[in-house]
Amino acid sequence: MSLQDIAVAGAGLALVSLAIALSKKPQSGLPPGPKGLPLVGNLLDMPPEKEWIKFAEWGKQYGGILSVKILGRPMIIVNSAAIMEELDKKGSIYSQRPVLEMGGELVGYAQTLVLIAYGQRFRTYRKHFARYIGSGKPVQSLHPLVDHETRRFLKRTLGNYEDLMSHLRKLAGGVILKLTYGYEVIDGEDPFVNLIEKANENFNAATVPGAFPVDFFPIMKKIPEWLPGGGFLKTAREWKKDTDSMVEVPYQYTKDQMAAGCAAPSFVSTSLENEASMTPEELRDLKLTASSMYGDTEGGADTTVSAEYAFFLAMVLHPEIQKKAQAEIDSVVGDRRLPNLSDQPHLPYVNAIVTEVLRWNSVAPTGVPHTAMEDGYIGGYFIPKNSLILANLWHMLHDPEVYPDPFVFDPERHIATEGKPAQTDPRKVCFGYGRRICPGMYLAEASLFSCIAASLACFNITNALDENGAPIIPVHEGTSGIISYPKPFKCVIKPRSERVVSLINAELA
């Protein structure tokens, strides 16, 4: 064969290889989306609150995946569960977090699991979570703790139901602080719960999209605090102190208990049994993992509290569902004891209520943003490296093509019957995707079931009355922020019988 023949053959092979590569590689550009302005792009199109509603409206026009540009940076908005599943399968390149200057760098959450960069430290944190609460099996060992703290919640609610939100926060805090630090919350104002809730409130405020210009213009970190526009630096400094306290104070409590020889078994005390052989980096990561168990907004207490609060709202709005669930509990559990997590397999309707609460009340409507670590393709569209990716979980859980009458609270949609399969399980959506999927979802589900089953067994949840004696009909409306709560509402929570009161008091005697 001549050199000319070899050259021709080589060129032919190259063309064939190129054709094969091109046939496999989508050729589309960025996903479609609303046209922006020069320089600022779609910055002025971004809604100041409840952005998930606007994103869903754009989705009707542009499809399940769309894009906008903010100051030249692409933001990919996903409205489709099928597209999110594709992101999940390619999690190795879509698991990075963006650098959030205010909430992450200045306030200090960049070192906790929710915002830490994808890499070795992230994997170390996740291993700690997996060992302790990362699957159904280790969480089963925590069922007695969850049931015990639920009983304490029942007694607090029995004493003063008007402080419902406070009781729910203490319920979630009681579970996580006990398993993480061996600390048992106290009745009344608890200093640890208050400390950590304050830090979480700061995080939620610091990460509202567009709330702080420094997120778009990092150079602003270098301006003097006293200059006009520099006030955010003072706020960040104060919030950083709260973040540091969230990390350090409970951790030091456990160390002090260990030194005194009276530490209760916990994630921290067990992990520190070999403290002498641990490196400073290992100790640092242990401490920050512990703080993430309460503070991580994808798996922490905030999400559970939001769902539990929504349950009480749903029961006020749907007394017929409440009665049906109570009848199921009465038939399975009886009136000689309170339900516990061992009853869960035998209470299908209560389980359906738990699932419907997670769907109806989206606790993290758009989750926490992801970032593309390299160029890639999703849904046939080009996703450039460093693009922000937001999953509109709220829309996926309220898509009428998946959930007919999506704004109606209907547990029946999750129960398969002859000739009618159950609708898509919303838990596949509400706990996120990829390598950032919620690490505390098994504990969250156990805590939510325990609270719901016990509350249904013990209480009648009804409308509050106005000054004229007419029932007040609350409205289900979520607050803005990474974690969304139902807006405050009034209700009446009374024991179903004197027998219930005796059971609650007897179990905590």
Question: Please, could you describe this protein's structure?
Answer:
The strands form three sheets. This protein has a four-stranded mixed beta sheet with strand order 1-2-6-3. It has a two-stranded antiparallel ribbon with strand order 4-5. It is an alpha+beta fold. The chain contains 19 helices and eight strands. The chain has one domain: Cytochrome P450 (Cytochrome p450), CATH 1.10.630.10. α7 crosses α19 and α13 packs parallel to α18. Belongs to the cytochrome P450 family. Keywords: Heme, Iron, Metal-binding, Monooxygenase, Oxidoreductase, Signal. This is Cytochrome P450. Pfam families: p450 (PF00067).
Highlighted features:
metal-binding, 509 residues, iron ion binding, single chain, 19 helices, Cytochrome p450, signal, two-stranded antiparallel ribbon, heme, globular, 4-stranded mixed beta sheet, alpha+beta, 8 strands
Structural topology:
Blueprint: H1 3-24, H2 51-62, E1 65-70, E2 73-78, H3 81-89, H4 101-106, H5 120-133, H6 136-140, H7 143-159, H8 164-181, H9 191-206, H10 231-259, H11 267-271, H12 280-295, H13 301-317, H14 319-333, H15 348-360, E3 370-371, E4 376-378, E5 381-383, E6 388-391, H16 393-397, H17 427-430, H18 441-458, E7 459-463, E8 491-495, H19 498-507
Parallel strand pairs: 2-6
Antiparallel strand pairs: 1-2, 3-6, 4-5, 7-8
Helix pairs in contact: 5-12, 7-8, 7-18, 7-19, 8-12, 8-13, 9-10, 10-12, 13-14, 13-15, 13-18, 15-18
Low-confidence stretches: 1-27
Shape: globular
Oligomer: single chain
Order of strands in the sheet with the most strands? Answer: 1-2-6-3
The structural class is alpha+beta
Beta-strand portion reads: 5-15%
Give me the Rg, rounded: 25 Å
Cofactor: heme
GO molecular function: heme binding; iron ion binding; monooxygenase activity; oxidoreductase activity, acting on paired donors, with incorporation or reduction of molecular oxygen
Organism: Panaeolus cyanescens
Pfam families: p450 (PF00067)
